[in-house]
Amino acid sequence: YSREDVGKPGEVTVTADAPKILTAEFSQDLRQIHVVFDCNVQGPADCSVIFTEDTVQKIGRDANCSFVANYLVVDIGTSTRLTLDTSLTLTDASQVYRAQSNPALSPRASGSVTVDTSKASLK
Q1: CA–CA dist 30, 62 (Å, integer)
Q2: Please, are residues 18 and 110 in contact by the beta-carbon 8 Å criterion?
């Protein structure tokens, strides 16, 4: 910077951290998977643009995704390939962002998580 630049108005862009996956668990009735993030999140209802192809096959092609506070709720579809040690992986272009943020300025959530089955009714 030069001496002339000091004191001139400028533009400052602040970028928040990308949402991080904390845990994932089956609902008690095993019809949903709840993915918990470290902050409130938003994203599309189409699970196929959130998860990798392998994960989409696990949760079922007609699975539906919704967002409630810091939860991504996956309504499990039909013809699933879920197992007790199922891992869910977000795509590199997951379109899951911090809630109320501008997607153009916000990093996307990424990563994977193994679904915890300890609280599910596996009877």
Answers
A1: 16
A2: yes
- Smallest CA-to-CA distance from 59 within 28, 42, 34, 38 is with 34
What's the whole-number mean pLDDT along residues 34-47?
97
Give the separation between CA 45 and CA 58, rounded to whole angstroms.
17
92-117: pLDDT as tens digits: 989 999 999 888 888 999 999 999 98
Could you tell me the CA-to-CA distances from 70 to 13, 61, 66, 90 in Å, in that order? 24, 24, 11, 16
Identify the helix (H) or strand (E) that includes residue 25. strand 21-26
Name residue 82's amino acid: L
Phi-psi region of 19 (alpha: psi -120 to 50; beta: other; left: phi over 0): beta
